[in-house]
Amino acid sequence: MKKKVLAYNRVEKPVLDQLEKEFDVRFFKNIDVDKDPEFLEWLGEAEGIIGLALPVTKQLLDRAPNLKIVSNVSVGYDNLDISELTERNIIATNTPDILTDTVADTVFGLIISAARRIPELDNKVKSGNWTEPLGPEHYGIDVHHKTLGIIGMGKIGAAIAQRARFGFDMDIIYHSRRRKPEAEERFDAVYRDFDQLLGESDFVCLITPLTPETEGMIGKREFGLMKNTAIFINGSRGKTIIESDLIEALKKGEIAGCGLDVFEKEPMDLDNPLLGMKNAVTTPHIGSSTWETELAMSDLAAKNLRAGLAGEKPPTMINAEVWEDKG
Ligand code: GLV
Ligand code: GLV
Q1: Which residues are part of the catalytic machinery?
Q2: How far apart are the first and last CA of the chain?
Q3: Helix or strand (DSSP H, E) at 301
Q4: What is the ipTM of this complex?
Q5: CA angle 195, 77, 236 (to 5 degrees)
Q6: Which amino acid residue places its CA nearest to atom 1 of ligand 1?
Q7: C or N: which end of the chain has fewer Cβ atoms within 10 Å?
Q8: Which domains does the chain have, with CATH numbers?
Q9: What does DSSP assign to residue 93?
Q10: Residue 69 bridge partners (DSSP)
Q11: Which bound ligand lies closest to the C-alpha atom of 262?
Q12: Ligand 2 pocket, 154 CB below 6 A?
């Protein structure tokens, strides 16, 4: 009998088709994971889960007695209760590395879009309101030769620094839990304490994972420390900032603008004030969503799933201690 696998939200079609040959797969999307009867029934039997952003909580795990592996199609794993998974000897995997350059491209797109007001001006052209040569009220600010502050100099942070340093001649300052000598050497990145970084950056770029330590790390006080001309970029998770404080800071002119790929609630409510703000450039959490990278992520997630279900060590495990316990 084929093993039962629960697929959730996003697994690219060619990969899903292949998995369906190997396993008994059921795909779920846009359902209430606390109530959907079919989902709950399948969860009760599944040995593997593969997908995007399923909240794997203690309560969910209580309903999944046969589960051996949860394979995230994402690098972030704030949706997983890792200690609970580890406690139950369930393998957790993610898809690091293959999305690094793609996410860095997205972040750079947000930097340039916000600085040069591209979505707002695109809208001006398309709506037929470009009726005369534009003046200062439509000018943007330069990106090149400015100071970029990176919070979280992990792999993605480094890929952003590379673009900034060598493509745009920017000065890089950074803050991370640990000093990153390699980034200091390769990009002339200079370490700053948190408050100093906020005060000196023309662009503040947040790219740290969401953890209990980073939740809400940027709020009223932090926006207040930024330059009035600063542009804030969030490529991490919505909950690493206090979104209502960001909205206040934009309204009061404490910062000049922002570029956001992530939000407190996704999809956001239609009364979210960000929807009406020209100086907020938004994308719907598509940091890694290119054809190439989504396929590669699904593929890696499938490799992780297969290995976990075959009793082999998955290529990119989050909770390696589960494996060590088994071995
Ligand atoms: C996307 O946000 C990811 O974590 O891969
Ligand atoms: C990496 O992002 C770190 O905070 O060390």
Answers
A1: 237, 266, 285
A2: 26
A3: helix 291-309
A4: 0.61
A5: 35
A6: 74
A7: N
A8: 4-98+291-326 (3.40.50.720), 100-282 (3.40.50.720)
A9: E
A10: 48, 91
A11: 1
A12: yes
